[in-house]
Amino acid sequence: MSTTALKCWRRTLLATAAIATMAAAADLRLQASSGAQTVRQHWDGAASGTAAAGPAAAHGAAPPMHPSGGAAGLPYVIRYGNLHSQTNHSDGGGTLGHCSGAQDPQSAALGPADAYDYARRHGLDFLMTSEHNHMYDVSDGTNASADPAAAHRQMRARGWIGQFNHPAEDQFAVDGQALAYTADGDQVMVLCEVMNSNAFSQAVDESETRHSNFEAACNKLLSAGYHLAFSSDQDNHCANWGASYSNRTGILLPPDAPFTQAALLDAQRARRVFATMDKNAYVVLRANGHLMGARFHNHGPLPLQVDYASSSGHHLDAIAILHAIPGAGGEFGAIAHATTSELQSAAGEHVYYARLVQDDGKLPWSAQVWITQAP
Hints:
11-stranded mixed beta sheet; 6 helices; alpha+beta; 5-stranded mixed beta sheet; 20 strands; globular
């Protein structure tokens, strides 16, 4: 469990956010050193060289960072940032050149104010410092008997929201079942970190080559019944907040609303979020006119539209629409490979999202949509 602080800028500077994240970098550090955990990696590449496009193919008219007129013709602008990082309030904040791993708790030189200033100067719109709360008494290690269900209840009682950080398939066990669903958890957990870059990178030019993919574990959480959108963060422990790689979490906000902490939290609750390895790209999924993040009842065919652009000139090499039955514990499978499609879904519950592959190999992921299909 981590405690967090979130700052956004451009218009307003803010202090502490009531957000909680559900995994600690210390877990990965300790398990990696003992060989106790193996995370299976799977990266999709281009299969055919060019993604199929329907009549409304990828939109390129509006630049994604702050698109005038909204993203993909929608009434939103996009803010890009990092929702997972540490400072000297726990085991981060190590100065470059002297940071090769997690710091001893509360021992490093640089704190949240340094992190926010650095991220602002390096072009991020927001940064969350997700400190490990078990380090506030200068201890290290985690409690193996910690109960995610109890944490979910506490979070719900306090009005917090959370993100599953770098989830592994043997974590977050409830009654002995890993990645298990809880009703309280479904109310408070809103994001799952589908990809991050090396937590101990010292790169400051977005050149980090070590990346981790957690789509399989995130999909198990979705299949268990959680309503989660994907994020992509950097888990920075060194003093390069947001600069180690080009990946970002994109959040859609109303263009005329104040850019505030509350607006960022509300957008996460609505799952108006996407993950991208290209900070200049966006992806938006719509289902029968409903924006990604929505839950709705559908009658008849289900039209899906994927809008994508990269202001750095990249294009799509591949696209997959992934589908599963939420709550059934089954696997996700690709059911379409075009920016527009029309599905004939069976009666019942469904979850869909889009995974894209750019010509440079970088992946953007849309948020999910959840459908109750009428007979």
